Request: fold
Amino acid sequence: MNHINTLKDIGRDRKCLIVGGGQSLNGFDWFSIPKDTYIICTNNHEIDYADMIIYYDKDMKEYYKKNDIKPFQLLLSFKHKKTLDYTCSNTTHYYTYDDMVFGDSGYHALQFADKIFNFKEIYLIGFDYTIKGDSYHHNEDISDPKKLERFKTWSIGRVLNKYTDTKWKNKIYNCNKYSAIDIFNYKLPH
Reply:
């Protein structure tokens, strides 16, 4: 397992698509993505497409302890001293909150892509930060009430405004024009 800084500038002169878990994944045309696009997935969303997977969650740690990743995929997770360690045997790289500003998996992935990996163009899909009915995930009819409350207070209440407060250095586009993140232009990967 290596520190995330060993991946510095892997995105130089390249573009990437970061995949969150929002409902805008439904109906997304995966075959329209150019073949040279590097795909970063969060948690376990659409991981069949992933070159890299980033998670921060003990439930996801249990998931990746039981499920192998493909040989070419990178798996990044959070590790901080001995008190918080969400890495598992499949983890290839780790990060701490000393490396990035506190946030959720999607916000971390965007920070990494922009500030460490240095992708010249970054596209977001599933970064909706909205709730439709009783769900905020693309693959659930109803989200668990406890997780739904955590999403409302944490992701929407505390993380959403960080997108506006952060100084981004590369070009970032949102593939969902209806996303609650309204500071990035709408554009699909080309």
